[in-house]
């Protein structure tokens, strides 16, 4: 990386990491949001994809509509506004999911699909009293969804490959190396390990940028 | 007399089932995100949070039972129950929220109970409450079973918070690698506890 770029990144690292919802400030890894579906329901890629579609369809619209409604004094109970908005939008999302997937696949996700309406990843914004602009809600909604979906797919991939020895239903390994990953406890442990590695990656990246910027400043 | 004993028996069996064998956190991971925040956050008192959660849980689950009976009996509502169930459950929890809010405002002065009111939305609109309501309604529990399960879920959640808070002191030990410190080691710790409970009960609850 060029010296000027490193210096610029190092000086503005805080604002970059605040805005980046994919890697540096991933909502799951850094803030611990949306853990329930990851730990229990994301045991296979198929489940992970169903949840990903539902989150993508639900998160951004909920955030935009609730940010708009919160502007009015009638909706001063933000927690209520956000959850009711999400559960009304869920009716439409469920309709689309029903069209896309057979009911047996939807049943395998169980109660974690309807539970998305109160999942912190979707309604977390209500905890902050500052009003949110609709455009910001739109942008952050999409970025947060993508950040969550990346972790969801990684966890689904690891749990299906190591827990069942298959990938998207196709058997790849004769014996599953770690069958306990199919269980809830396995979900907690693999998620803990993935988050630890991700955070180590973030720290290493920040260190690389800072050291590079210092070296550049020293050479000039 | 036998009827009363039987009813009370089913209440306690389901309460104990919800506290240990089907603990909301250790077997279904409901409300884990909130639990991890709660353990780190010294501004929110865990016991106040737990007491509010238990009260709202019990009230909204009882209400949800009757709402579910209504949904099943009315034919056109029954045909779309998979779509409207989350909305109905959120509204049931909201009724619990407003009743508790009204109670706090009437009995205590709002100024003195400001901290409690600030915690109230977090104790209402979370996965633990709505998850329990969804379990009791989709698995068609009877009224007593519903109340027992709801009460047990609240107590089980408080128990999980206390266990994880207690573990937190040991997890801050210097021998824990720096990479794992904070959320990752807490998750692994909860995972090991979940494994212990699985070993104790021997089966995974349906979800």
Please, could you describe this protein's structure?
The complex is a heterodimer of chains A (220) and B (207). Chain A is mainly alpha-helical and 220 residues long. Chain A has 10 helices and 2 strands; from the N terminus they run αααααααααββα. In chain A, strands 1-2 form a two-stranded antiparallel sheet. In chain A, strand 1 and strand 2 (170-171) form a beta hairpin. In chain A, helix 5 (45-69) packs across helix 6 (78-100). Chain A is flat. Chain B has 9 helices and no strands. Chain B is globular. Chain B is mainly alpha-helical and 207 residues long. The interface between A and B is large, with 51 and 52 residues.
Count of helical segments of chain A? 10
- Output the structural class of chain B: mainly alpha
Order of helices and strands of chain B: HHHHHHHHH
Largest sheet of chain B: none
Helix and strand arrangement:
The complex is a heterodimer of chains A (220) and B (207).
Chain A: H1 3-11, H2 13-19, H3 27-31, H4 35-41, H5 45-69, H6 78-100, H7 103-109, H8 120-123, H9 134-164, E1 166-167, E2 170-171, H10 184-219
Antiparallel strand pairs in A: 1-2
Chain B: H1 2-21, H2 32-40, H3 46-73, H4 75-79, H5 81-107, H6 114-124, H7 127-138, H8 143-171, H9 183-201
Helix pairs in contact in B: 1-8, 2-8, 3-5, 3-6, 3-7, 3-8, 5-6, 5-7, 7-8, 8-9
Quick structural overview:
The complex is a heterodimer of chains A (220) and B (207). Chain A is built from ten helices and two strands.
Notable features of this structure?
heterodimer, A: 220 residues, mainly alpha, two-stranded antiparallel ribbon, flat, B: 207 residues, globular
